[in-house]
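Bit of a strange request maybe. I'm writing a small parser for structure token strings and I need a real example to test against, not something I typed by hand. Could someone generate the tokens for this chain?
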Amino acid sequence: MEAVQEHYAKVLGPVYTWMYGGWEECTQRSRDQLRELGISDWPRGLAIDLGCGSGFQAVPLAEMGYEVTAMDCCPLLLEELREHSRALPQLTAVESDIAQLCQWREQNGQTAAAELVVCMGDTLPHLGSLAELDSLLQQVAQVLAPGGRLVLSFRDLASSELQGCDRFLPVRSDADTIFTCFLEYISAEQVRVHDLVYRRNSSGSP
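Reply from user aminoacidic:
Good idea to test on real output. This should exercise your parser:
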């Protein structure tokens, strides 16, 4: 996870919200998605957002009435989340490795079972192996209340191998920044994603 933290600190953190289309737009999209899933009608209580980023899901969940623990390893994104959630005291942003979910709860005295755990976006593919994924899911099973729910989303980049130039995926661009990804297929189960960010400097040149 240290490599992920470094990558977010140096590359993804500064452009994360921008690459998704901006905070307001993406948060509204998440509100709509969560409502479509029926989450607004589910029992309230503790909700844990694993890999919360700048709060696209955490803020709507708090607005719905959940007590939200929003967990991420990127301080920059957590600070952005705190700025957007000042009016939501029921939302707590914590810096932690999501793979250490149970350890964090134990160390911080969080004993309440969760009615809801969400892990959305590209969080799961950041885990280093299938064993780490299995461990995380086991931890989630431990923290969920009876009848609690887990909501997952991720991009499936491994089931169909792209070829040639199709392995370059445009993400977003504007007058000052171009963001694209390059996919490197390591095995049938592992794809390495190279994030390429080009930014215009203060002199006006790339």
